[in-house]
Backbone:
C-alpha cells in the first residue's frame, strides 16, 4: 500500500494571518491539502503566501439550510464558485434533499442539532456525512452523541468525512491522532483513515474535474480528440 495523502476537509480561520499559521501547522502534522472556508480574496492571498509549502488549498462553502428550497438555492448559488459545498441541515426536510442532491458534497452533522436517522433518510443518502473534530473534543455529552452516530454510519456503511472545523492552530490535530479518535468512536481504523484521505480526496478530484470541464456529469468524462 502506498503512502496516504491526508486532507483536513474544513478549516475556518478568521483572517489571513491565522490561516497562514494553520497552514504551517498542517504541513507539520502531515496534511497535504486543506479545504478552507474563507472569502475568495482571502484564499487567493493565502495561496500566494504559502506557495512553497507543498500544500494544496481548496475553497469551501458551508451553508445552513432549513427548507428544501434553501438547499436548491444554495446549490445553484455556490456550486460553481467553490471546490466543496457543505450543507448544515436544520430540519429533516432539508436533510432529505441535501443527502441526495448531487451538487452537495457533504452534509455536516453536529451533536448540538443531530436529527434521528430514519429508514427513509437512510434510503436516500448518497452524499458523505461530515463529522467535526471540534465537536468530538468539546464535551462528554457531544462525544457520546457522536459515538452513537459513528456506530450507525459504520453499521449502515455510509460514506463519512472527518474534518477539524478548526478556527485556530490550537484546534488542529494530526491525521493519525484524528483517525484514532474516530476509531475509538466505533469506526474501524482503515475506514477512519479513509475519512481523512481517500473519501475527501475523491470528492476534491471529482469536483476539480467538473469545474475544469473534464467531467461533464457524474461518471461522464470529456475526451479531446
Residues:
Amino acid at each position: 500500500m502506498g503512502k496516504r495523502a491526508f486532507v483536513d476537509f474544513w478549516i475556518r480561520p478568521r483572517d489571513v494571518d491565522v490561516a497562514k499559521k494553520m497552514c504551517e501547522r498542517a504541513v507539520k502534522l502531515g496534511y497535504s491539502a486543506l479545504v478552507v472556508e474563507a472569502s475568495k480574496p482571502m484564499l487567493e492571498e493565502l495561496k500566494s503566501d504559502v506557495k512553497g509549502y507543498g500544500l494544496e488549498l481548496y475553497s469551501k462553502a458551508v451553508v445552513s439550510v432549513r427548507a428544501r428550497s434553501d438547499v436548491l438555492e444554495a446549490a445553484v448559488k455556490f456550486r460553481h464558485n467553490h471546490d466543496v459545498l457543505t450543507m448544515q441541515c436544520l430540519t429533516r426536510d432539508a436533510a432529505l434533499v441535501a443527502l441526495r442532491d448531487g451538487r452537495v458534497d457533504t452534509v455536516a452533522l453536529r451533536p448540538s442539532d443531530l436529527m434521528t436517522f430514519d429508514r427513509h433518510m437512510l434510503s436516500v443518502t448518497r452524499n458523505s456525512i461530515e463529522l467535526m473534530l471540534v465537536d468530538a473534543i468539546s464535551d462528554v455529552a457531544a462525544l457520546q452523541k457522536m459515538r452513537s452516530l459513528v456506530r450507525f454510519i459504520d453499521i449502515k456503511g455510509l460514506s463519512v468525512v472527518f474534518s477539524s472545523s478548526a478556527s485556530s492552530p490550537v484546534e488542529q490535530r494530526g491525521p493519525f491522532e484524528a483517525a484514532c479518535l474516530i476509531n475509538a468512536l466505533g469506526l474501524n481504523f482503515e475506514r477512519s483513515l479513509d475519512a481523512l484521505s481517500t473519501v475527501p480526496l475523491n470528492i476534491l478530484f471529482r469536483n476539480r474535474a467538473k469545474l475544469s470541464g473534464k467531467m461533464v456529469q457524474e461518471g461522464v468524462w470529456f475526451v479531446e480528440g
About this structure: The radius of gyration is 17 Å. The first strand starts at residue 7 and ends at 11. The chain has ten helices and nine strands. Residues 140 and 146 are 10 Å apart (CA to CA).
